[in-house]
Design goal:
about 350 residues, alpha+beta, seven-stranded mixed β-sheet, three-stranded antiparallel β-sheet, 11 helices, about 40% helix, elongated
């Protein structure tokens, strides 16, 4: 029995002093493995007298169970220590200030677009958006601008083929709404979108820009209704002191047509460098929908009438926020974008 007691003392001492799970696993293999001393003791039973074998076998089994139990207990102890050490090393000091995530902010053009949409939704309008690529039929012909009409020279278009082009104005959306809705009344829509012109970029021009056009069709819709609507819009955008004026103009799809000015929000109409001393700033074009446009869409101009207007969103944003170069909207300068964090 002496080899059993010696092995037990040696194994107990090493198991108790094990400092890691890997070291403990090595001891398990060393003592309880197929080639370990406990297994060798079992193999040596064949050389013992018959009467000693039961007692010897019992002692070896007791040793095996004792060592297995000690190893399991030591494993629990070491796992606990390793977890405590991991928690200690990975703990977070919650008293330190956190790192604020860098959040973006709405683009100024989207701010103006959303403000205009909210304004007209409040007046009962429906917001209709369309595609950037449109048919020549809706972009020009249904807007009373047939092929070879001189008015086409006013818009340097970007054609994809003979019948499709990048929209030069969002009027194409209005023409499709008219056709789809005919002959039902009334129609009250605003159509925001991106438009494209074959133009050289400078401080006030861009080959792409955003528009929002409005269309109202109903019975006895007059120019005075248009003026009231645009005056309400101007006051909401630029302040309650704003006034508007109409100047005669020409657009193929409206008759009569007007250019619309608003009193300068810098000098309040007194005259300053921003308004070039006139006290007025041009903001959009508008007019009564041309009878030909109504006829082509399936309406009777004797029974109904309407008005349309188109406002450049960049122009409104430049006036509203004092931006001096249209290219700022597209150059992705982070310093410019962060300027608008203070706006809701």
């Amino acid at each position: 029995m002496e080899p059993i007691e010696t092995l037990q003392q040696e194994a107990q001492a090493k198991i108790q002093s094990a400092a890691s799970l890997s070291e403990l696993n090595e001891l398990r293999v060393l003592y309880l493995g197929k080639k370990g001393p406990v297994q060798e003791l079992m193999k040596g039973m064949k050389d013992l007298p018959k009467e000693e074998k039961p007692i010897f076998g019992q002692k070896v089994n007791q040793l095996k169970q004792l060592l297995s139990s000690m190893i399991e207990d030591k494993k629990v102890e070491l796992e606990k220590k390793e977890m405590e050490a991991k928690i200690e090393n990975e703990k977070i000091d919650i008293t330190l200030p956190g790192r604020s995530p860098v959040l973006g902010n709405a683009h100024p053009l989207n701010l103006v677009k959303q403000e205009l949409e909210d304004l007209f939704i409040g007046l009962g309008y429906q917001v209709i958006e369309g595609n950037d690529i449109v048919d020549d039929l809706y972009c020009f012909e249904r807007a009373n601008i047939p092929k070879d009409h001189p008015a086409r020279d006013m818009q340097d278009s970007l054609y994809i083929d003979q019948n499709t082009l990048l929209g030069t104005h969002t009027t194409a959306i209005q023409m499709m709404v008219l056709e789809k809705s005919a002959p039902n009344l009334p129609i009250k829509v605003v159509c925001p979108g991106k438009v494209y012109r074959r133009d050289d970029d400078d401080a006030t021009h861009s080959h792409q820009f955003m528009q929002m056009e409005g269309l109202v069709i109903g019975e006895k819709v007059t120019l005075s209704d248009l003026k009231g609507t645009l005056e309400f819009m101007a006051k909401k955008l630029f302040g309650q002191d704003r006034q508007i004026r109409f100047r005669p103009s020409y657009f193929p799809f409206t008759e009569p047509s007007v250019e619309v000015d608003v009193t300068c929000h810098i000098c309040n109409g007194k005259g300053c460098p921003t308004c070039k001393g006139t006290g007025w700033i041009e903001i959009l074009g508008a007019g009564e929908v041309h009878p030909n446009v109504l006829k082509m869409a399936g309406y009777d101009p004797e029974r109904c009438s309407g008005f349309a207007f188109g406002v450049g969103i960049e122009r409104v944003a430049m006036l509203k926020y004092g931006i001096d170069d249209i290219r700022h909207f597209y150059t992705n300068d982070k310093r410019f974008s962060e300027t608008f964090k203070r706006f809701d």
